[in-house]
Amino acid sequence: MIKVIAIGDVHGQWAEAWHALKASNACDNQLNPTEAVVEGRFQVVFMGDLVHYKDARAYAQAVGEEPYDPTNPDHLRRAAKAQIRELYRFKDFFDKSNGNVRIILGNHDESALDHKFELSTRGGLKHDEFNESKGGIKLPEDLAAWMGSFEREILYHDVQFCHAGPTPGMQFFDDFFYHDTDTKTWWYNKPELLLQTGYRFGVYGHTVMKEGIWIDKEHHFAMIDALGHKQFFEMILDDNRLDYRVIQF
Fold first, then answer.
1. What is the CATH number for 90?
2. pLDDT tens figures, 58-115
3. Residue 181 within any structural domain of the chain
4. pLDDT tens digit string along 193-219?
């Protein structure tokens, strides 16, 4: 039997992420994994999208200047460096976890690596801070290699964890992904998709939950992109047990 601590899309909200890890007893005050994590009794899953702040205000706070200008190379570099510092701090925690902290690749993480698709905030602010051709800073090679190793799907006792949704097409961020409205709407337009996969339960991020973590008990899945609401999702699992709860911290 294991406890799974699932934390929604970070998008640079590292203060909240660390608070969630402490509240779940997955890390100590020195930001090291606890004994329960190192021994594997706790499994920590991050749902992806570690990078790219969600709005102009978060970018301005990161660069220490208002307003944030996404066309200003100095602002881009400062936004990149602020995130790189936090990524290294988190990677240290990850490296000490004995393989019991796992990270799902989000579409923003992949975009920061290959720049194939130009992503932006809901307000239209472009995420160019890791794109050298736009004046940003390329991710350091060791961080890029680490992020490139993130998983697309994680399974524990027939419970699926993915970034956007349960189908294979939602796990690869190509033209189909970005032009398919299902990637953002399946959870209320086609909730039966999870049951069609045959998994016992599913946990997903990608789509911001405006009211906090949303659970579809009938169709057996949870949408947990709600770190901004100071929430994470906790499960107790074995082959015969599946219990869950939303933790407010």
1. 3.60.21.10
2. 999 999 999 999 999 999 999 999 999 999 999 999 999 999 999 999 999 999 999 9
3. yes
4. 999 999 999 999 999 999 999 999 999
In a domain? residue 205 = yes
**Among 149, 159, 130, which Cα is nearest to 70's?**
130
How many distinct structural domains can be found in the chain? 1
pLDDT in tens, 170-180: 999 999 999 99
The model scores a pTM over 0.85: yes
| DSSP assignment string, the chain | -EEEEEE---TT-HHHHHHHHHHTTSB-TTSPBPHHHHTTSEEEEE-S--SS-SSHHHHHHHHT-SS--TT-HHHHHHHHHHHHHHHHHHHHHHHTTTT-EEEBPPHHHHHHHH--S--B-TT--B--TT-GGGT--PPPHHHHHHHHT-BSEEEETTEEEESS-SSGGGGS-SHHHHH-THHHHHHHH-THHHHHHT-SEEEE-SS--TTS-EEETTTTEEE---GGGTEEEEEEEETTEEEEEEEE-
For range 39-65, the mean pLDDT: 97
Strands 221-223 and 201-204: parallel
